[in-house]
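Hi! If you just cloned this repository, the fastest way to understand the data is to look at a raw example. We've pasted two of them here, unedited. The first protein comes first, obviously.
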Amino acid sequence: MIYFIGDKPSKHNIDPKVAFVGTQSYKTLLNWIYRMNLNINDITLYNVDSFVNQLQQNKLELDEDDQVVALGKEAAIILNKHIIPHLKIPHPSGLNRKLNDTEFVNGFLKECKVYVLQKW
């Protein structure tokens, strides 16, 4: 499983328990997943607090083949605090002007694809 972890639920989320769905960031993230040629059935989206709580309550278990990707600095900080190995990439927010740089986006998408497929 590949876990994409965001920071906090957006007020635009269709359901606050489901990360990103209903937001512009979700559309961007889906585009990135498509561009990396990842199988959507192998992906789960979480808000970081929910992800950590699920792990702590043993409702979720990370297998050795699972990969965790932090979407943005805030999610990465919390994952680091809980010693959860992950790759940090930019948050897919339209407010992030770096995402207008095609070379920048292509670079971290390539790195992310290598990271998530290294154990597959």
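Ok, and the second one:
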Amino acid sequence: MTLYEFILLAEHQQYDEVLNGSGVYLDNHIKGNLRFNLYAIDKFFVEVEYNNTENKIVGLRPFQAGSILDKYSNLKDIL
């Protein structure tokens, strides 16, 4: 599946593809009461945002590269 094909899916199908389909969990990032889980699907990533206080999924962001991916890098801790 390509990023474009994923974006064309209905929202509920996107969640199903990430969480129950071909999404591979990679890492998470916590900021306050929000948790961001990073998944890989083929040659792109999907970030799923959870609100820990409300115990619900807030949204998802498909992407291939850029600043969203940077927060999952441990390089910032080394520099």
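That's it. A detail worth noticing about the second one: Strands lie at 24-31, 34-41, 44-51, 56-63.
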